[in-house]
Amino acid sequence: MKPILKELITEWKERNLPNIIERENDLTKLIDWKILKAIPIVGFRRTGKTFLLLNTAKKIGKENTLYIDFEDERLPRKTEVLTTLSDIIKEIYGRKKLILLLDEIQNIPNWSKWVRRMLDSFNYQIILSGSSSKLSSKEIPTELRGRCITIELYPLSFSEFLRFKNEDIERLTDPLRLNLLREYINFGGLPEIVLSEEAKKYMLIEEYFKTFLIRDIFERYGIRNKELMRDILRLLLNSTYITITKMFDTLRSIGHKVGKETIANYFYYLRSSMFIEFLEILSPKIKNSLKAPRKVMIIDNFFIKRFSQKFSENIGRLMENCVFLELKRRAAKNPLLEIYYWRDYSQNEIDFVLKDGLNVKQLIQVTYASSKDEIEKREIKALIKASKFLKCKDLLIITWDYEDEIEIKNKKIVFKPLWKWLIEN
């Protein structure tokens, strides 16, 4: 085992790092030698976690870092690998302060105890990347509670997408801006897909979906009834709202013998992988919140476009999903920010309600509109009603390309084009 680990360290020292396009996440800002914490990076498959590690090495200098990929087939999946690694690090680097970049470390048993021991030595900053279901703040092992700063990595934001496309949106004409926006909301923000030609994009998304299903769901959770999970995914990709009861009834109607507990478990697996998020309704009563339908949000728009069975382009849903993902990026930087939707008994609905602590911060509607005449009156009516009920003055309607401000019943409503809202932070 020692020769293999020494070989990996030698390979790292000799490795030429690739050209990496800058992301908005800068891990170097989290490195603090006075307060040593592990930094797990969690995110869906192929969102760029490994490149984030390599870019950190590039910024800090390879001589100050060590990158190990625990998916390397030469490494056995045994705890002894980590024990031997710590000895070799001391042998090669001595007491030098070192930043360890550890990819897919969850593959090794007892990894969390080893990470805790290394942190306690005060010589190592540790950045981890791997399975969201094992490294997320909700699932982090007991040994590391209070010793982690978890970073959530999502597909490219629109600003990052433009950087990857080498475009400056401020210098473009309106038609070109909207052309880029349409590409972004249709094909999403998974880095490799953004950089690929259109024909290859479809091949890649098929491969991503298949790999996610096999490795992150079937293998990780030992699922035997694969057809049931596939049908659940098909239904979720084609649903705007869902409840366990509704899913139960639908699955039973097509011949699946399944219980509600199993469906709840499968939903949990999909959420843990970060493929799906369920948006809850904002209600003062927990019982109402738990019983109400939840909105189905997907980690990347291209999965909706490719695997939804809609016969027409559902650009409204794609816009809404795009807004949700951007809100999740912003919420990842503000732990107090919570995202909900709202609906009253008259079916007045708000697409997104942002809650900051105890206060409702903003109400957001999303509509595929290019003029005021295209905006449905019920969306404005719902904003006015929710504004009163939730005591919120910040009212926003995100449009395709219409911009304006109006005042109705002493309430100011701002209309902002999607592209402008996406880059404003």
Helical coverage, percent range: 40-55%
Q: At CATH's second level, what is the architecture of one domain?
A: 3-Layer(aba) Sandwich
- Quickly name the level 1 CATH class of one domain: Alpha Beta
Radius of gyration, CA atoms, in whole angstroms:
23 Å
> Number of DSSP strands?
14
Total count of helical runs of at least 4 residues:
17
CATH topology of one domain: Rossmann fold
Span from first to last CA?
48 Å
Low-confidence stretches: none
Strand order of the largest sheet: 9-10-11-12-14-13
CATH superfamily of one domain: P-loop containing nucleotide triphosphate hydrolases
Report on the architecture of this protein.
The protein has helices at residues 2-14, 49-60, 79-93, 111-120, 132-135, 158-164, 174-187, 191-194, 198-221, 226-237, 244-253, 260-272, 286-291, 301-307, 315-333, 377-390, 418-423; strands spanning 39-43, 65-69, 98-103, 124-129, 151-153, 241-242, 276-279, 294-298, 337-343, 349-356, 359-366, 395-399, 404-408, 411-417. With 425 residues, the protein is α/β, with parallel strands linked by helices. The chain has a domain at 2-153: Rossmann fold (3-Layer(aba) Sandwich). The longest helix has 24 residues, at 198-221. The chain is globular.
Please describe the structure with a list of short key phrases separated by commas or semicolons.
6-stranded mixed sheet, Rossmann fold, 5-stranded parallel sheet, 18% strand, alpha/beta, globular
Q: How would you sum up this structure in a few lines?
A:
The protein is an alpha/beta fold and 425 residues long. The chain has helices at 2-14, 49-60, 79-93, 111-120, 132-135, 158-164, 174-187, 191-194, 198-221, 226-237, 244-253, 260-272, 286-291, 301-307, 315-333, 377-390, 418-423, and strands spanning 39-43, 65-69, 98-103, 124-129, 151-153, 241-242, 276-279, 294-298, 337-343, 349-356, 359-366, 395-399, 404-408, 411-417. It is globular.
